[in-house]
Specification:
alpha/beta, 9 helices, 2 domains, Rossmann fold
Amino acid sequence: RELSGRAGWAPASCGARRRRRERERKGKVKEDEELEGGRKNAQLLGASTEQKKAGLNRTESSSEIVLITGAGHGLGRLTAFEFAKLKCKLVLWDINKHGLEETADECKRLGSKAHAFVVDCSDREDIYSSAKKVKAEVGDVSILVNNAGVVYTSDLFATQDPQIEKTFEVNILAHFWTTKAFLPAMMKNNHGHIVTVASAAGHAGIPFLLAYCSSKFAAVGFHKALTEELAALKRTGVKTTCLCPNFINTGFIKNPSTSLGPLLEPEEVVNRLINGILTEQKMIFIPSSINFLTVLERILPERFLAVLKRKINVRFDAVIGYKVNEQ
C-alpha cells in the first residue's frame, strides 16, 4: 500500500511539475513578447519624438525670423546662439554696438543669417523706427524674445528717479512697444511666439529690488493678460512663453545667494528656455521649486510665510540710502 501510494503520488507530482514548467514557459514567452513589444513601442516613440524634434529644428525653426532684445551679452547672446544652431534668421537688438556685433559674428559662424540693429529699448520711438527697418530689410518677425532688462540694487531712497523710470521703460514698457510692432503680422498669419523674460522676482517681493520686482511683476502680468487676449481673439497659433528664473550668474547683481540653491548658470537657463519655446510651455520656473513657493504664498498664513522667507534668506550687495539717526 505504501508503494502503491508512493507510485500514485509520484506521477501526480511529476505531472504538476510539468504543468507548472509549461505555464512558466508560456508565461516567460508572453513576458518576452511584452518586453519586445514595449521595446519596439519605445523605439517607435523615440523615433517619432526625434523626427518631431528634427522637423522643428530643420523645417519649422529654420523658416522663423527671431528677434531678440538685449542680444549683446548674457542670456540674450546665448539665446541667439541656440537659435542660430537651429538655422533661424536672427534679428539682434542691443544698445551696446560692440557686444551686438560680436553676437552677430558668432551667429553667422554657426550658420545663421544675423542682422544687428543698435536699438535703445528705453526709447519708444527708437523701437518703432527700428521695427519698420526690420520689416523692410528682413521681413515679418515670427518669434519675439523680449529679453532686455536693467536692475538697480538699492533701497527706495537710494534709487534715483531716472533709474526707476529706466527700469520700467526697459523691463516692461518696451514689451508693449515691441509687441505692438510685431504682433499684427503674427495675428494675420495666426503663427508666432511672444517670449517674455521675467524673473522669480516677478512672483515674490525682494527688499532692495523694489523697482526691479515691480517691473517684473508687470512683465508676468503682461504675459498672462496677452495669453488670454490672444485666446479671446481666437489666435491660437500665436504662442506665449514666460521665463521666471532665480538669480543667474551674469554679474548684474553682486554676490547674490539664497537657500533655494546655487546661482543658475546662463547656459542652463537658456537650454530650458529654448526647450520651453519649442514645446510651447506657458510658464518656465527655474528651479521648479519656485512654482511651489508661489502656491504656498497664496495659501499659507502670514506668520508662516515670514518664517519661510527667513529660511530662503535672499542676500546680495545693495546700496542703502535710508539711515536712522540713533540718539
